[in-house]
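Researcher: Please generate the 3D structure of the following complex. Treat every line as part of one assembly.
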Amino acid sequence: MSKKILTVDDSASIRQMVSFTLKKEGYEVIEASDGKDALSKIGSGGVSMVITDLHMPNMNGIELIRALRTNPSYKFTPIVMLTTESHQDKKDSGRQAGATGWIVKPFKPEQLVAVVKRLLG
Amino acid sequence: MDAQKQLYREEAFDLLAELEEALIELEQQPGDLDIVNRIFRAMHTIKGSGAMFGFDDIASFTHTIETAYDLIREGKLSVDEELISLTLRSCDQIKAMLEASVGGEGADASLIEEITASFKKLISSVQDAAPGQAESCPAGTCGDQVDGLNAEITYRIRFKPHRELFQNGTNPIPLLNEIRGLGHARVICHLKELPGLKELDPEACYTYWDIILTTDKDADAIRDVFIFVEHLSDIKVTKIDDYSEIDDEEYKKIGEILFDRGDISLSDLESILGRQKRIGEMLVESGKARRSEVHSALMEQEHVRNLRKKRMGAVSGDSTSSIRVASHKLDSLVNLVGELVTVQARLTQLAAQRNDHDLVQVSEEVERLAAELRDNAMGIRMLPIGTTFAKFKRLVRDLSTELGKEVNFTTSGEETELDKTVIDRLGDPLVHLIRNSIDHGIESPEQRRAAGKPAEGTIRLTAEHSGAHVLISVSDDGAGLDTEAIRAKAMEKGLISPDANLSEKEIFELILAPGFSTARSVSKVSGRGVGMDVVTSSIKSFGGTVEIASVKGKGTTITLKLPLTLAIIDGLLVTISDEYFVMPLNAVVECVELSADDRRRTHGRNLARVRDEIVPYIPLREVFSLGGNNPAIEQVVVTEIGERRIGFVVDKVVGQHQTVIKNLGKFLRHVEGVSGATIMGDGTVALILDINKLTQQVEFDESNLGGRMYHA
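Model: Done. Output below.
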């Protein structure tokens, strides 16, 4: 069974790019437009990895990561944050919230695949 | 991807509209940082997504603008009307770039350059020497971009995660696998910090790893793999071996490795070293090091030792590494060696004459070195014959298809080495032989089936060493030679008289005669009757012989017996009335004495009795019309030519002589019976006898002149 990855981003084009790239690699991908949407879609288990943007309306990425880490089903799930800036403070706050890794935008599909493989094996 | 590009375009148009709005606002409130931030973000998104969706022109163009707005954000650059209008013009260009992908006319390149230049001027006005904000390498992915160095380097990596590694969802296994993917890696897991079950926190990471990695990537690529966990673990990457350390394959002792890694202290090591046992064992027994640590260190030692051994092998030239050299360089080397051997022979002779002990010692040393040098130089010219074999596969395939025959071609002995000059001259004869085998030897599939043979015929090309010779044979499992047909044909061509009584072997040899061909019609491939005699003469020209064996219905084997080398031969030095001659030693069987009495007993017929065998001999004094009188006891050098024994009568046998063959000059090239000359130690010239030719010539004279073995 292919692993399921949740991509969370308010930009439809990013979501679609992530989704297209990962599906080509054989992963199953579900999409959410913000943190709230993500929490409602993720359910209790079954998602192997979350890729989330940080700046989103309703619930931002940091809040989403914190929420997921308190959920026993997702305590140890790899979460990758997409940051538009390579600024260290954003990375740090994401890390403190419990993010596993990060990708700095802009990124190429290959870079996304490399990170997913690194964390999911 | 097109749907995605479409989506990006739509988003970018929205962003541009927002951007324009913000720009107009900014013009009215130049100090408002919120508006600057909005502009920056919009630019940033356009740039970032542009790069992702293949709009590289947009990405690079917006990058400059973004840099300018970053400076405004930081208060280094002030907003003025010029900047606003420049940005607005940029927006138009970005729109044009977006349109270009759906058939719009695209951006104005010169305008883009102008705008970019203006922005760069603004930037550099506040940012003198500072380089434009370099595009930072997206974290976590740099590894893909690192250019691998060619030389392989070995690293020791200790990856020791903190207890809370799992808390942010990290699984260390994929990381280890990624490291494995970088090169040749060996991983050892340490469990010594694992507590008892009672104290164990199942959500904590107690294990750590040692990895020995040999890779052509650099240390950054390794650190990059661990970039997500560098704050959650201790990672130590140490270069333990690189290509420069080539001098020896020995690697550090176990104790040193453990000390290097900080697993044990120097005093631990020294106190242990006092006792004598295997150091690893002792460390474990004494509790100074864990078995896994010692195991890991041993592994590192082994890994690097293997690596260095491999490298040493590569450097000292394993069979595979080679260089190409122009053959004329080799020729001149061999020539020089030849000269050296000649001079050395002179030196030896001189030393013997002078009876000078020191000189003899030196000359013996030179003799040994010269001999080694000669063997080496000759060895360089030796090539495996396999290179020639390879091209025949194609020939067989093409010919068999053309002739409608099924042929399986096998070769063996490709590694057999032969002098390059011999190999070069071997190509054409072999082509002839293989052609003949396919054309005349192998039958058509129908005929073969009718004869109870597999439809597919086999042609075997083999090479093997046999003393100073190499035997190359072409054999087929075809129809074999038809002695009756050959006989009839030879009579028709006038090669033999109708009443000639010939052995099977002699009949086979007829096919080697000029103008002989048994093929019923001249086919495209062979059958013009030129093949076999060309083969024979070219093989003979370099001292080889051709032998034929055939069984009717079973197949034919043609064997070429070739000398290993053409440049230097071992010769037997003989004299006839103070003239020196050299006979090829490999043909010489033995030397016997011939007294005047022996001569008389045979009544003028040149026959000697050697161990109850009658051996005809050729008196060389007469053949070469040399003056002087026969000594009372002459020597007969008995040689073997093909299957026959022929003796050559000389005055004296001097002994074995290393002979460097010098070709005779233009005038003398066609003298029969002499294949070349060599220079003796004292500078005199000795002729090298071509015993094959001599025998043929004498036989010819004999048959023409009625019973006389020679003519004077």
